[in-house]
Design goal:
single chain, alpha+beta, three-stranded antiparallel β-sheet, 6 helices, DNA recombination, DNA damage
Length: about 260
């Protein structure tokens, strides 16, 4: 994979104590944990990289010279591999200074790889740039590890989708009914308003109807019940579609076609 020229690499000064392995000085960030979400060619020898970082969220980086065949870090800018990244600048597109592979994670293969691309597409389309989400970053790392260890993809994806929507302010609490102002009851039926949260279902509703038990299970990350699995899948498709404003998710359609996820 493309990497950077050696002459672009700088020696990092000692990190400041306030941010984990990161220092802000002269608009320069050093040693920030991150993952490549997506990259595409820029000019003849460079790349624009969409990076998900722990302390700075999703950012855009110009990797100058990254496409040159003898670039020292050519293999560093790979998806689903933990990186230590450094960059400079304060505009919407910063300049990537360095990217080093950290290691410690198994590669994604087969179905897990496709699921990983689905996660990345969600992050690119739903996260605003320069909006930190450290909790979601940790969830992303955990999700990649679970997929790499062949944990059930349907459960793993639902947990990540739920975490993503909570971080972006959608249906933050699935156990509180907005129409009764009381707790969700396991035996009742509900719909989830993307802007407000669960309310008691009506006969006229066209939104997905789910049981209170499903909502409670989702809040507890418990997807063992087959009914919860089915209803949570329908609900998450609905909520994600609302957030996307009708824009399609290419990788999800492939997953639906192949695996009914």
């Amino acid at each position: 994979m493309p990497t950077l020229d050696a002459d672009l690499i700088v020696t990092a000064p000692a990190p400041a104590p306030k941010r984990s392995r990161a220092r802000v000085a002269d608009h320069r960030i050093l040693g920030q944990p991150g993952f490549v979400l997506h990259s595409y060619p820029y000019k003849e020898t460079s790349l624009i990289v969409d990076m998900f970082t722990r302390d700075f969220g999703r950012i855009g980086l110009v990797a100058k010279g990254a496409k040159r065949p003898h670039s020292k870090l050519r293999g560093a800018l790979q998806t689903f591999q933990p990186l230590s990244t450094s960059w400079s600048g304060k505009s919407e597109l910063r300049t990537l200074i360095d990217a080093e592979w950290v290691g410690g994670m198994l590669p994604l293969e087969k179905t897990a790889l496709l699921c990983g691309f689905y996660l990345n597409e969600l992050l690119v389309k739903l996260l605003a740039r320069d909006d930190p989400h450290p909790v979601l970053f940790d969830q992303y790392v955990s999700t990649l590890n679970q997929l790499a260890h062949n944990e059930p993809a349907q459960t793993v994806l639902r947990k990540f989708e739920r975490a993503l929507l909570k971080e972006t302010g959608v249906a933050a609490d699935l156990t509180r009914c907005t129409s009764t102002r009381g707790p969700v009851e396991a035996g009742a039926d509900y719909v989830v308003d993307p802007e407000r949260g669960p309310r008691v279902a009506r006969v006229s509703d066209t939104w997905p109807v789910v049981s209170g038990k499903t909502l409670i299970d989702m809040e507890n990350d418990d997807y063992l019940d087959p009914a919860t699995q089915m209803q949570s899948k329908q609900l998450m498709r609905f909520l994600l579609a609302h957030q996307l404003g009708g824009a399609p998710l290419n990788t999800r359609q492939i997953l639906i076609d192949l695996l009914q996820l």
